[in-house]
UniProtKB/TrEMBL annotation:
Keywords: Oxidoreductase. Gene3D superfamilies: Alpha-helical ferredoxin, FAD/NAD(P)-binding domain. The keyword Acetylation does not apply. This is NADPH-dependent glutamate synthase. Residues 30-64 form the 4Fe-4S ferredoxin-type domain. GO terms for molecular function: glutamate synthase (NADPH) activity; iron-sulfur cluster binding.
Length: 466
């Protein structure tokens, strides 16, 4: 029955898309979006809303799409999210709003993410200006890092009338949205840059190539007259396995591999820093980062093997990305773990030695623990290995900031749910507090911190004026 069946969406043909970096999912047309929006039964107590980390009024924006009022649909989204065109593309909706959509009980849930993307793209294409700003209040706030956490915090404060400046270490703002997630999942010019431009239109200043903790310290930022600082520096430090051979030429961290492709356009041979992968590439890991690295290597012409120590059902990557990777011919080696990377006589990768695994008892995370099968080691030839095992926050800022505590995994300690750190006037949120998580959670943390910063500055100014 049409009510229970999702309106299909178009994708680039896998045979073609493995030769280009263009977006894979083509999005809904106007007619398709309206058709899908009309499936929503406008629940009185919508189960989808509490499952959205920023509580978007989902039925309200979907109703506007059904009524062909795309402008209002986009306006509703803008009330809740600074990056709807990004979230519509990369949020794990299947584990959040769509998982609890009532229609999912009898059929397919509403394609909430794809509808969000449609309305947000419509606003971009029609150059809709959605942000309203209060009059400037004369107070300055500094933001460290321009990822989803920093962008959201900056946008919220700018709208409240604060003079906001972002300090960003890289030459391009956007955090993982520009350096991590590839073009074929999240177009940079069309989407990310437009969202950053919208932020600048709100009056936010962005200074790139500033590494806080090295170029300037947190205390020096305060000396420039900032009332509060939000740290949204992410979790960009790659984790390695510490197995023999990991220093061999031809072993990359997924972060380096993706950054060189996304930010330095290394996939283009006419650029200064082209990247070459071997005929066969092994990607170790099973998250979104592993899928992005594997699919990027495929587009550079390699045969790509993903090596993952559990089974397909435990893969942490988004379902859609796994499906896309399978369609693109990525070969999955489940229940397999690398034990050594093998080098040739010139010090370049020539192979990888792996061991087969089986699933044992449940571990603390509730997942069955992978256990090595004795005597099952085997080798296969690869010329490039990409380690995609996760990342942790960089300790630079806590190390150079008196009174700012972090834990043994370099995560900045917060003392309440609003991002207050162990030092007055400094707030933090996103991956640097939680460890690698998701775009929407980082945005939620940025939003909460913005409210707390506003409250802190307003209370302080009342005390000073009394
Ligand atoms: P980041 O996005 O990491 O931004 C931090 C920024 O701070 C960076 O620009 C960094 O350069 C800057 N910075 C760091 N240190 C300093 C310093 N000392 N001085 C100045 N600036 C500094 N999430 C999803 O929801 N869906 C996905 O599909 C998904 N795919 C992903 C794919 C990849 C390849 C990666 C790496 C992550 C993915 N994630 C995904 C996770 C998501 O991108 C992150 O959780 C999110 O970006 C965290 O936001 P953030 O603002 O905390 O940090
Ligand atoms: Fe619409 Fe599903 Fe949300 Fe109900 S739960 S309002 S059907 S999206």
């Amino acid at each position: 029955m049409a009510k229970f069946t999702r309106t299909p969406i178009s994708y680039q043909d896998p045979k073609e898309r493995i030769h280009n970096f263009e977006e894979v999912c083509l999005g809904y047309t106007k007619e398709e979006a309206i058709q899908e929006a009309k499936r929503c039964i406008q629940c009185k107590k919508p189960t989808c809303v509490p499952s959205c980390p920023v509580n978007i009024d989902i039925p309200r924006f979907i109703k506007k799409i059904a009524e062909e009022n795309f402008q209002e649909a986009a306006q509703i989204l803008a009330e809740y999210s600074a990056l709807p065109a990004v979230c519509g593309r990369v949020c794990p909706q299947e584990d959040q709003c769509e998982k609890t959509c009532i229609l999912g009980r009898k059929g397919e849930p509403i394609a909430i993410g794809k509808l969000e993307r449609f309305a947000a793209d419509w606003a971009i294409e029609n150059k809709l200006s959605l942000g309203k700003t209060n009059e400037k209040n004369g107070y300055k706030v500094a933001i460290i890092g321009s990822g989803p956490a920093g962008i959201t915090c900056a946008g919220e404060l700018a709208k409240e009338g604060y003079q906001v400046k972002i300090f960003e270490a890289l030459h391009e703002p956007g955090g993982v949205l520009v350096y991590g997630i590839p073009e074929f999942r999240l177009p940079k010019e069309k989407i990310v840059k437009v969202e950053i431009e919208n932020l600048k239109k709100l009056g936010v200043e962005v200074e790139t190539n500033v590494i806080v903790g090295r170029t300037i310290t947190v205390d020096e930022i305060f000396e420039e007259g900032y009332e509060a600082i939000f740290i949204g520096s992410g979790a960009g430090l790659p984790i390695f396995m510490n197995i023999p051979g990991e220093n061999t030429n031809g072993v990359f961290s997924a972060n380096e591999f993706l950054t060189r492709n996304n930010l330095m356009k290394a996939y283009r041979s006419d650029m200064d820093t082209p990247i070459k992968v071997g005929k066969t590439v092994a990607v170790v890991g099973g998250g979104n980062v592993a899928m992005d690295a594997a699919r990027t290597a495929k587009r550079l012409g390699a045969e790509v093997h993903v090596i993952y120590r559990r089974t397909q059902s435990e893969l942490p990557a988004r379902e859609e990305e796994v499906e896309n990777a399978i369609e693109e011919g990525i070969i999955f080696n489940f229940l397999t773990n690398p034990v050594e990377i093998l080098a040739d006589e010139k010090g370049w990768v020539k192979g990888i030695r792996c061991i087969k695994m089986e699933l044992g008892d449940e571990d603390q995370s509730g997942r069955r623990r992978p256990v090595e099968i004795e005597g099952s080691e085997y080798e296969f030839e690869v010329e490039t290995v990409i380690m995609a095992l996760g990342t942790s926050p960089n300790p630079l800022i806590p190390r150079t900031t008196e009174g700012l505590d972090s834990d043994n995994r370099n995560r900045i300690k917060i003392i309440d749910e609003n991002g207050q750190t162990t030092r007055k006037a400094i707030f933090a949120g996103g991956d640097n507090v939680t460890g690698s998580a998701t775009v929407i959670l980082a945005m939620g943390a940025g939003k909460e911190a913005a409210k707390a910063i506003d409250k802190y500055i307003m209370e302080k100014s009342l005390q000073t004026n009394n």
